[in-house]
Amino acid sequence: MARIPNRVCLTYDVWTACTSEGYICLTAHFVDENWKLRSIILNFCRMLPPHTGVELSNTILNCLKEWSLQKKVFSLTLDNASSNDNMQDILKRQLCLNEDLLCDGDYFHICCSAHILNLIVQEGLKVASDALHKIRESVKYVKASDGRMQKFDDCVCESGGIETGLGIRLDVTIRLNSTYLMLESALHYQKAFNHLNLIDRNYKYYPSIEEWRRATKMPLDSDFYEDLEVLQYWKDVQKRFSHLSIMTRDVLSIPITTVTSESAFSIGPRVLTKYRSSICPEKMMKTLLRRISQKEN
After folding, report:
1. Is residue 1 part of a domain?
2. Backbone phi, psi, residue 33, to 5°
3. Radius of gyration, CA atoms only, the chain
4. Is it true that the peptide bond before 50 is cis, omega within 30 degrees of 0?
5. What tens digit of pLDDT does each residue of 59-76 get?
6. What are phi and psi of 230, to 5 degrees?
7. 135 and 111, same structural domain?
8. pTM of the predicted protein model
9. Residue 121 located in a structural domain
10. H helices within the chain, ranges in order?
11. Residue 95 sits in which domain range?
12. What is the tens place of the pLDDT at every residue in 126-162?
């Protein structure tokens, strides 16, 4: 890690296990010499309370020193928690003492776009909350039993047939992409829901014409653009722009979300269940890191 020619970008997150013990995961992101974007967990360790900005910044700084990376940091991507604002400010001042950051740390703190996007979309969905609620309840109603699914299939046939293999989908409310997929599928079956409303007196959630119209206006089909392999392009021209390509590695390594660090916790509950709550933090760390390594391989 210390020998890579460019800088690294960081993400981190804190997780509380079922034993109420806190753990911190620090992940480094960088473009290697073969122009492959790499993400490596630098540390998954016990985080003793208090989880203040001072303690968090000291933990991260100590980890960077262990990897000899304190002079190679470019950015730190965080979610919008107030404790993170305080932590990054302290860490930035610590790194700037030895002039370790570029441009005095002006580009050090990156806000997690996934969290920002989620807040924006949640506010936007409030405008069409009635329509969204009725469509979600309609899908729940149909999928509640085999009998209702059969009746709905009959409604599809009575509606003249619907040329789609989508099927109706129920969303997970905290996953915005699944809500889009639910709306997309429900709109294809609008006529079938209309017919179901006429023959099933127990079906109470049929959206009005205006509510269907609002659903039609929500995450619209995007135009298709051919994907550009940005890293491959810079790999091809790195000899022509040797210095610029090194800087490009730094910039293209910046993660726009903290998802990578958060994903390390997704297998945490499977490693430390309530039946294994007596496992010590050191064994917990080693077991989870081994599981993550096996998953990546």
Report:
1. no
2. -65, -20
3. 25
4. yes
5. 999 999 999 999 999 999
6. -65, -45
7. no
8. 0.63
9. no
10. 53-66, 82-96, 113-127, 129-142, 146-158, 176-188, 190-199, 209-217, 230-237, 242-252, 259-263, 268-271, 281-296
11. 8-116+236-294
12. 777 888 999 999 999 999 999 999 999 899 888 876 7
